[in-house]
């Protein structure tokens, strides 16, 4: 069975400061990992994905995430937050043996303050 | 990235009526489409998976006669909420995924449909 845990339901940062959204996963097989962002009343947009290539993955809008197998983590980071980054972020895991079904974390609400 | 559209974006209906939601992949062929439901401030819950030309596979606890899914072509899937009741009010999101050279591609999401049943 696979699962994903987002350790923080809410994160608040000041504009221009770093962002760290934490995610830990559990999977019996080599997973694919994704981060999606959802703005209010909008669908999900793919930020980045890890599929067993480079462990440091760069995504859109300056976000990146590092796959650490020893820590079963896939934390999302950004060096400098922007007001437009305020949204809900979902960490997602899938693996080929599971039919590539996506398993979603519970989400982290990112608030960016002036 | 690929584009997935949903229509309508918002619908209000009376209890007992049926509502159809369309999901289209605009620039790729979606061999598999997914329907999710999202309650306020919660994560997405997979309702069903459909492959083009096949019957949908429903997740445990999802009534297949209540939520009818049709995936008639590689670019269109529909979800019909039959005899809708207030508890069916939710945000419904579709997702589409293609294949390329036998490899499973990324899943892309539509903008969602807000359903309110009065």
Structure, explained:
The complex is a heterodimer of chains A (114) and B (118). Chain A has 114 residues and is an all-beta fold. Chain A has strands spanning 3-6, 10-14, 19-21, 23-26, 32-38, 44-50, 56-58, 64-68, 73-78, 87-94, 103-104, 108-113. In chain A, strands 2, 5, 6, 10, 11 and 12 form a six-stranded mixed beta sheet that branches. In chain A, a hairpin with a 5-residue loop joins strand 7 (56-58) and strand 8 (64-68). Chain A starts with a strand and ends with a strand. The mean pLDDT of chain A is 91. Chain B is an all-beta fold. Chain B has no helices and eleven strands. In chain B, strands 2, 4, 5, 6, 9, 10 and 11 form a seven-stranded mixed beta sheet that branches. Chain B is globular, with a radius of gyration of 14 Å. The model of chain B has no long low-confidence stretch (mean pLDDT 89). Chains A and B meet through strand 6 of A and strand 5, strand 9 and strand 10 of B.
Quick tags:
heterodimer, A: 114 residues, mainly beta, six-stranded mixed β-sheet, four-stranded antiparallel β-sheet, 12 strands, 53% strand, B: 118 residues, seven-stranded mixed β-sheet, 58% strand, globular
| Radius of gyration of chain A (Å) | 13 Å
Mean pLDDT of chain B: 89
The oligomerization state is heterodimer
Number of strand elements of chain B? 11
Q: How widely separated are the two ends of chain B?
A: 36 Å
Low-confidence stretches of chain A: none
List the total number of helices of chain A: 0
Beta-strand level of the residues of chain A, as a percent range? over 45%
Shape of chain B: globular
The span between the termini of chain A is: 41 Å
Helix content of chain B: under 10%
Largest sheet of chain A: 6 strands, mixed
Largest sheet of chain B, in brief, is:
7 strands, mixed
List the secondary-structure elements of chain B in sequence, H or E.
EEEEEEEEEEE
User: Structural class, judged by helices and strands of chain A?
Assistant: mainly beta
Q: Taking all residues together, what is the mean pLDDT of chain A?
A: 91
SSE series of chain A: EEEEEEEEEEEE
Question: Uncertain spans of chain B, ≥5 residues at pLDDT below 50?
Answer: none
Q: Number of helix segments of chain B?
A: 0
What percentage of residues of chain A falls in helices of 4 or more residues? under 10%
Number of strands of chain A: 12
């Amino acid at each position: 069975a696979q699962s994903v845990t987002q350790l923080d339901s809410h994160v608040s940062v000041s504009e221009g400061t770093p962002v760290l959204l934490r995610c830990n996963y559990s999977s019996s097989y080599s997973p694919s990992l994704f981060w999606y962002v959802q703005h209010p009343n909008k669908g999900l947009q793919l930020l980045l994905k890890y599929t067993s290539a480079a462990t440091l993955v760069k995504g859109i809008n300056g976000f990146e995430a590092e796959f650490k197998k020893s820590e079963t983590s896939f934390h999302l980071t950004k060096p400098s937050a922007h007001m437009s980054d305020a949204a809900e972020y979902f960490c997602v895991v899938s693996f080929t043996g599971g039919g590539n079904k996506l398993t979603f974390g519970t989400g982290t609400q990112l608030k960016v303050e002036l | 990235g690929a584009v997935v559209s949903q229509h309508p974006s918002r619908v209000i209906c009376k209890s007992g009526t049926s509502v159809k939601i369309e999901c289209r992949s605009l620039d790729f062929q979606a061999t598999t489409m997914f329907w999710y439901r999202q309650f306020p401030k919660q994560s997405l819950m997979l309702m069903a998976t459909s492959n083009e030309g096949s019957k949908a596979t429903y997740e445990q606890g999802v009534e297949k006669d209540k939520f009818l899914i049709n995936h008639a072509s590689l670019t269109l899937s529909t979800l019909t909420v039959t005899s809708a009741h207030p508890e069916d009010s939710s945000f419904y999101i579709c997702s589409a995924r293609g294949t390329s050279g036998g490899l499973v591609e990324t899943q892309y999401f539509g903008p969602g449909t807000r359903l309110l049943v009065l």
